[in-house]
Amino acid sequence: YKYQYPNGTIEDFSIDYRRNDEAELRDRDRLRVTVRDQNQLTTVGWFMYREERVRSALTEIVATLFVIIVWFFGVTAFAGPVMSLVVVPIERMVRLLGMLMLDPLGYQATARFKKFLIEEDALIKNTRWTKEVLKGMETSFLMSTILRIGSLMKVGFGSAGVEIIRNNLQKGQSKNMLILNSQGSTVSCIFLFCDIRQFTDATECLQEEVFVFTNRIAAVVHSICHSYGGAANKNVGDAFLLSWSLEDGESRSSNAKSSYSGRSTPPLKAKSNQADKALLSVIKICIALYYDKYYLEALTDAARNRLTNKLIKRSGPVVQMGFGLHAGRAVQGAIGSQRKIDATYVSEAVERAEFLESSTKQYGLKMLMSGDFHRLLHPNTRRR
Q1: Backbone angles phi, psi at 106, to 5 degrees
Q2: Which residues of 14-49 are buried (b: 16+ CB within 10 A; e: fewer)?
Q3: DSSP H helical segments within 127-181, as ranges?
Q4: pTM of the shown model
Q5: pLDDT in tens, the chain (384 residues)
Q6: CA distances in angstroms from 104 to 62, 109, 117, listed in the order given
Q7: CA-CA distance, 99 to 333, in Å (whole number)?
Q8: How, if at all, do strands 367-369 and 341-346 pair?
Q9: Distance of alpha carbon 70 from alpha carbon 68, whole angstroms
Q10: Taking Cα atoms as reference points, which of 201, 225, 275, 241 lies closest to residue 356?
């Protein structure tokens, strides 16, 4: 649009796209070309590249918009699977750990956990993934692992280990060691101590299979007591300790702050007929012990014959047990170290239940109950 001759004369050319003022042109809109010959004569030409620059800018804008659209649809396409397969399962695992932290043993019976399971079915229906695909994801394995760990803690620690699990989950989140320096808590319970009769003879006859035999008995005792509100606490070879809590949440928290010894405490009360349930559990267990086939069918023929021949002179079923029932207060907590801990009850009430059971052998009875337990029974049950 402009040319300068060697003599300094400048000639302007008429261009349709030229603006009225040359100063309005940007540096990127023009190009200066200088030509110098061997005589050192110089000519300069100015060329306008506005139209090319405009087309280049439009091309860049279109390319940017195209990248944004592709990115948007790509994110939209991957957001659904990421939410369904990663984000939502992780959020659900965090919620499950929260429920496990608040109620380590009874969280599966809460309305919150039932709603949690219903939400899982709804999530499967609302996604385009089949149930088999979702079950095969790593997040599903982690969820099932958390559930299994919770079940193992429930079985391993029992009712006396609730506070141990809760304290270590809440207070020990940043530590890799168990917190065992906390005090125990005082609880009011009904204690059932039961023992398998002639267990030494059974051990000699069954040898390695004694565990199969004992676990069958434990399954009956624990399942019946659990169905009537009881909780298994301790398995000591041929003996089992079970308990029925006599307290609600408020009384338990208040008793946890009080000392177990030397202070007058209110009388025990069974507001939910726990004493009647414990007594009924013993009756149900005694009835179930007469089903010899259930306890012997899992044994080999040789072990079964040795056991029956050993007990052939004893009248009654193959499995016979003694029971001791007592109600009182106890301190529940953890006993042990970082290498091995046991959650249990420590008190005279537990020893009294064990003493009553051992006394059944002297009196030739199946069950003995204490006066404290008898007073908790319903009046109609006491008369009977």
Answers
A1: -110, 15
A2: eeeebeeeeeebeeebbeeeeeeeeeeeeeeebebe
A3: 131-135, 138-157, 162-171
A4: 0.63
A5: 677 777 777 777 666 554 445 666 777 777 778 888 777 788 887 777 777 878 888 999 999 999 999 998 888 877 777 777 778 888 888 888 888 777 776 777 788 888 888 888 787 777 777 777 777 777 778 888 888 877 777 666 666 666 666 666 665 555 555 555 566 778 899 999 999 999 999 999 998 999 999 999 999 999 999 999 898 888 888 899 999 988 644 444 444 444 444 455 678 888 889 999 999 999 999 999 999 999 999 999 999 999 999 998 888 899 999 999 999 998 887 777 777 777 778 889 999 999 999 999 999 999 999 999 999 999 998 888
A6: 59, 11, 17
A7: 21
A8: unpaired
A9: 5
A10: 241
Q: How far apart are CA 3 and CA 12, in angstroms?
A: 6
> Which tokens go with 14?
């008429």
Residue from 151, 174, 163, 323 nearest 253 by CA: 163
> In the chain, how long is the greatest CA-to-CA distance?
140
Do 231 and 345 contact (CB within 8 A), yes or no?
no
Q: In this structure, are residues 13 and 21 in contact, taking their beta carbons and an 8 Å threshold? A: no
Residue type, 9: T
Amino acid in the structure at residue 230: G
Burial class (CB in 10 A: 0-12, 13-18, 19+), 217: buried
d(CA 38, CA 41): 7
Q: Which residues pair with 251 in a beta bridge?
A: none
Task: State the distance between the two ends of the chain, measured CA to CA, in whole angstroms.
Answer: 121
Q: How many residues does the chain have?
A: 384
257 Cβ neighbours under 8 A, 6+ residues apart? none
Three-class SS of residue 332? strand
Distances in whole angstroms, Cα of residue 74 to Cα of each of 67, 80, 88, 310, 317:
10, 11, 20, 76, 71
Cα–Cα nearest to 277, from 353, 231, 225: 225
Angle formed by the axes of helices 138-157 and 88-102, nearest 10°: 10
At 176, list the tokens: 């890799």
